Amino acid sequence: MKVGIIGGTGFIGTGMALRLSQNHEVIMGSRKKEKATVSCDACCLTLKELDIPFNLTSSTNQGVVDDSDIIIFSIPAEMLSVTVDSLTGLEGKIVVSLMNPMERGDYFRYAPPEEGSAAQQLQKMLPDSTVVSAFNNIPAKLWNQMSKILDYTVCVCGDDKDGKQIVMELVNSISELKALDAGPLAVSATVEAITPLLINIAKFNKMRDVGVYFR
Ligand SMILES: NC(=O)c1ccc[n+]([C@@H]2O[C@H](COP(=O)([O-])OP(=O)(O)OC[C@H]3O[C@@H](n4cnc5c(N)ncnc54)[C@H](OP(=O)(O)O)[C@@H]3O)[C@@H](O)[C@H]2O)c1
Does residue 210 lie in a domain region? Predict the structure, then answer.
């Protein structure tokens, strides 16, 4: 299956492209084709230097939608609405949300939309797509550090059994990540809210790369 990343030029998008393209055909997307090309070239160079086989190309965000079976939304949650409105053809596709809406003050606070979570907002905007939430709680920095093993559990939420299964297989294909079925898409609010907690724990305890492992 082809995997496309909307916002593939971002902090987490580039890291996901580096990891996913080792086992999947991946397209990095951007609002600007040239920006996607620059990020893609940098990722390809990194993988070539490490002598790791990969399959990675770039396109616009619309090109990602046109050519991918699984589309990962890796953009700031507050840009979800404007981004979805700019795209066509998401019907019938599996759409993955890793977005965590939050506000920053003295501490980080979960700030969900009225739908309950970013994933539910996305599903409401895309009633004919299969939205699944995953990858919400993995620090972006680790995705990009190719020498590091990604050793976390990943909560996967979704209302469609087959779509959730496909995304769980995608999770399990990356490093040492282990997918866990966390239930329906409504549970994504709980999972998204874990991320500000992790960031607060890291900040107030001077810790790095705080993540979760359920066992
Ligand atoms: N950072 C983490 O550790 C982490 C961990 C787990 C989940 N997440 C979630 O992953 C998502 C992306 O995080 P990130 O840190 O990678 O974000 P980011 O680097 O700030 O942004 C990602 C991409 O979003 C696009 N973008 C930026 N502003 C936009 C706008 N106004 N309209 C449309 N697209 C815009 C940009 O792509 P183009 O300019 O190329 O279009 C950018 O490269 C967030 O929702 C976050 O909650 C992050």
Answer: no
Instruction: Compute CA distances 112 → 77, 79, 86, 120, 192, whole Å.
Output: 9, 13, 22, 10, 9
**Residue with the nearest Cα to atom 7 of ligand 1?**
136
Instruction: Point out the ligand 1 atom lying closest to the alpha carbon of residue 13.
Output: 16
Number of structural domains, the chain?
A: 1
Q: What percent of the chain has pLDDT over 70?
A: 100
Pocket of ligand 1 contains residue 7 by CB under 6 Å: yes
Q: What is the pLDDT of residues 86-131, one digit of tens each?
A: 999 999 999 999 999 999 999 999 999 999 999 999 999 999 999 9
Query: Residue 26 maps to which CATH number?
Result: 3.40.50.720
Give this prediction's pTM.
Answer: 0.97
Spatial separation of the C-alpha atoms in residues 78 and 4, rounded to whole Å: 20
Ligand 1 lined by 90 (C-beta under 6 Å): no
| Residue nearest ligand 1's atom 42 by CA | 10
**Residue 144 belongs to what domain range?**
2-205
